[in-house]
């Protein structure tokens, strides 16, 4: 099957640009459970640097996937939640989870 020649932006390319990469899907997966503070996300993703997490969250916020709420407290409290558009990714992330489980089961030792 040959994909049609696109005269408009490719939807797959758009999706990969917005939610692709090493960290964005993991950030989104953890935000499915609800609001998280920055340091909560850092604990859930110990291999990510603070700078990279900040950049990824800003990208997701800019693209309308994540909402950032800042509370005027001392120290300031910042929380991240999925927007309405971000919540539509739930079935996509669930499908990735299921695919990953099946892959791991079929290919032991390739985690």
- Give the ordered list of helices and strands: HHEHHEEHH
Binned strand content = 5-15%
Task: Count every beta strand, where a strand is a DSSP E run of 2 or more residues.
Answer: 3
Assembly state of the chains shown: single chain
**Main sheet characteristics:** 3 strands, antiparallel
Distance between the ends = 31 Å
Q: Structural class of the secondary elements? A: alpha+beta
Identify the strand order in the major beta sheet: 1-3-2
Average pLDDT figure: 93
Q: Which residues sit in consecutive blocks of at least 5 with pLDDT less than 50?
A: none
The radius of gyration computed from the alpha-carbon positions, rounded to a whole number of angstroms, is 16 Å
Shape: globular
Tally of contiguous helical segments: 6
Classify the helix fraction into a percent range: 40-55%
Features:
single chain; 111 residues; alpha+beta; 6 helices
Explain this structure.
By secondary structure, the chain is of the alpha+beta class. It is about 50% helix and about 15% strand. It is built from 6 helices and 3 strands; from the N terminus they run ααβααββαα. The chain has a 3-stranded antiparallel sheet. The longest helix is centred in the C-terminal third of the chain and has 17 residues, at about 90-105. The protein starts with 10 loop residues before the first helix and ends in a 5-residue tail after the last helix. The model has no long low-confidence stretch (mean pLDDT about 95).
């Amino acid at each position: 099957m040959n994909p049609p020649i696109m005269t408009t932006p490719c939807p797959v390319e758009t999706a990969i640009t917005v939610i692709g990469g090493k960290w964005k899907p993991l950030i989104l997966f953890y935000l499915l459970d609800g609001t998280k503070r920055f340091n909560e996300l850092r604990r859930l993703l110990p291999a990510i640097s603070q700078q990279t997490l900040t950049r990824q969250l800003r990208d997701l916020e800019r693209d309308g996937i994540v909402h950032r709420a800042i509370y005027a407290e001392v120290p300031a409290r910042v929380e991240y939640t999925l927007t309405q558009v971000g919540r539509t990714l739930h079935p996509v992330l669930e499908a990735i989870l299921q695919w990953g489980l099946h892959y791991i089961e079929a290919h032991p030792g390739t985690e």
